[in-house]
Amino acid sequence: EYSPENTGQFTRFILDKPIYVTSNYWIGWVQVTSGFLNIGFDKNYNDKGSLKYNTSGSWQLDNNEGTLMMRPVFGKREDIPSSARISEQMPAVKVYPNPASQDVYIEIDTNNNLSEYDIEIFSYTGQLRYRSVLSATSIDVSGLEPGLYVMRVIHRKSRYTNTQKILIYR
Predict the structure, then answer these.
(1) How far apart are CA 47 and CA 45, in angstroms?
(2) Within a 13 Å sphere around the CA of 37, how many CA atoms are in the beta-carbon half?
(3) 85: CB partners within 8 A, 6+ apart
(4) Could you write out the DSSP letters of every residue in 22-81?
């Protein structure tokens, strides 16, 4: 269900049992109110001809140039980069500078050893770009292409996660 608190965030629907996809798949939803649907629309990628809608029992082809920003995420529940499991057991994490060009510094408000944490950086399309045991207070991000990324700091024992968005620019 959509709520104003979720604006600008992904909504995840977890299936009770797996669905095996062997060919094309379609994603859809039913609008049950007359209000606007808050969904992203990417005008940079033209998927014209694939977007259809049904208003009165018949499917119509949408004429807008672009594509909806709905994406399925496949895999185990804990592998989803846009999710965050934060609790009192996960200490505060500070990432700076943001935006960054060379190094990103990570401060974890804890007495624990840094090596008790893993660090993962995903592209905004969900591709894993960096994974390591956190062994220092900084990470060299100069090898990453400029763009928006999602950084996860994961406590290795409890699996609690803190997720941060970072922007790489040059």
Answers:
(1) 6
(2) 12
(3) 159, 160, 161
(4) -S---------SSSPP---EESSS--TTS-EEESSSSEEE---SSEE------S-GGG-T
Residues sharing a CB contact under 8 Å with residue 115, sequence separation 6 or more, in sequence order:
133, 134, 135
- Please name the helix (run of DSSP H) or strand (run of DSSP E) that holds residue 118, with its range, or none: strand 117-123
Do 166 and 100 touch, CB atoms closer than 8 A? yes
Q: Which amino acid is at 160?
A: Y
Task: Encode pLDDT of 128-145 as tens digits.
Answer: 999 999 888 899 999 999
Q: Cβ distance 12 to 73 under 8 Å?
A: yes
> Would you state the structure tokens that stand for residue 138, as one six-digit string?
């900084």
Token pair for residue 77?
């529940």
Give the largest Cα separation in the chain, rounded. 61
pLDDT digits (tens, 9 = 90+) for 37-90: 667 777 777 777 777 777 777 888 888 788 777 666 666 555 444 444 444 467
Close Cβ partners of 145 (under 8 Å, ≥ 6 residues apart): 168
pLDDT, residue 50, reads: 75
Q: What is the pTM of this model?
A: 0.49
Give me the residue label for tokens 């292409």.
Answer: 145
